[in-house]
Design a protein that fits this description.
The chain is mainly alpha-helical and 195 residues long. It is 48% helix and 4% strand. A hairpin with a 2-residue loop joins strand 1 and strand 2.
């Protein structure tokens, strides 16, 4: 789907029936946060996304595909990070970086996200287009920079300091997993089921 040629979708077609969805960016930020917290219930996701009627449970696979299609803004597969190279390293978090994101939108677009009525796809397009002059994009750059032997000692020290200063917090579940691995290693227990 091309946003330049078509209006942004307000519904999903599932099992041949059109279902209206909530398109506000806040709903889809909540969706992403639910996913990042791990194992959200399918019912909770449907209640979050659909306006009134829910698709039939026999179409759960198609519903999931359609939800992910909308979440990815009509694209297939995983979105690539800014700059065009895929990365598994997380460089921002909607919860943790909320202030930086709000400030960047205000600075660049004069949009107050607390008052904005903005479709998810439009929010996403604006987010991807934030200027490198915004503090938020600078912070993402610090988090993602690879410190290499080609850098001078002062550059290495600067980026290490910035990485430490702007480091994303470790999620509770990840911290519990790390602790469990450490405990298993200390006590000599197998860690295969923890990896």
């Amino acid at each position: 789907m091309n946003m330049l040629l078509n209006s942004v979708p307000e519904s999903l077609i599932i099992a041949g029936t059109e279902y209206e969805i909530k398109t506000d960016f806040r709903v889809w930020l909540k969706f992403e946060i639910l996913l990042s917290e791990g194992n959200p219930s399918f019912v909770d996701i449907e209640k979050l996304i659909f306006k009134s009627s829910l698709p039939p449970s026999c179409a759960d696979e198609e519903t999931t595909e359609q939800i992910l299609w909308f979440y990815r803004c009509g694209k297939c597969g995983k979105q690539e990070q800014k700059g065009g190279t895929p990365s598994s390293k997380k460089i921002f978090d909607y919860d943790y970086d909320d202030g930086y994101i709000c400030a960047a939108f205000m600075e660049q677009y004069h949009i107050d996200l607390n008052c904005a009525n903005l479709h998810w796809w439009k929010f996403h397009a604006l987010m991807l287009s934030l200027s490198e002059n915004t503090e938020f994009v600078k912070i993402m750059g610090y988090r993602s920079v690879e410190i290499s032997s080609k850098m001078t000692a002062s550059q290495k020290a600067f980026y290490q300091k910035m990485k430490k200063h702007y480091k994303l917090p470790v999620k509770k579940e990840e911290l519990q997993r790390i602790t469990a691995i450490e405990d298993a290693l200390i006590t000599g227990k197998p860690i295969d089921n923890l990896l």
